[in-house]
Amino acid sequence: MRLPTLFLALVTLSGCATSPLPPIDPNMAWVDFATPMPGGRLLMAERLDGKRLQDGRFFQVSPGPHELEVRFDFEVPGGGGGLGMMSEPKERLCYLIIRYEHFEAGQRYRLEARNLAYSPSARLYNAKREIVAEDRQANCLM
To answer: What is the domain partition of the chain in residue ranges?
Structure first.
């Protein structure tokens, strides 16, 4: 299971790595991504206001309220492997929804996703590193 997932992630990311990010529009807000804790494998944009995105590396949004949906893949501890040994970690795929009412033009935001065991969470920070929104919904698959 891990090898096909890893291969798909690498193919997806290699396609993204070859195309440069678009220029930052000063009339829009820009949202970068991070997974600051170990175990986070992939964090990417899926939908903006319910519409699927073509480039999952960032969000660039108009001022005002928006709903961001991100995909977050991370490892969770494996189950018992017999003889007191743990099996390999398993990958968990989650979709997190973050709603923020006050995006400002020309501002940069940072969306960070992390996991505590099986539970994912995401926080949106403004340029002053203040938390301005947290995920309000998480749908996970194993």
So the answer is: 57-76+88-142
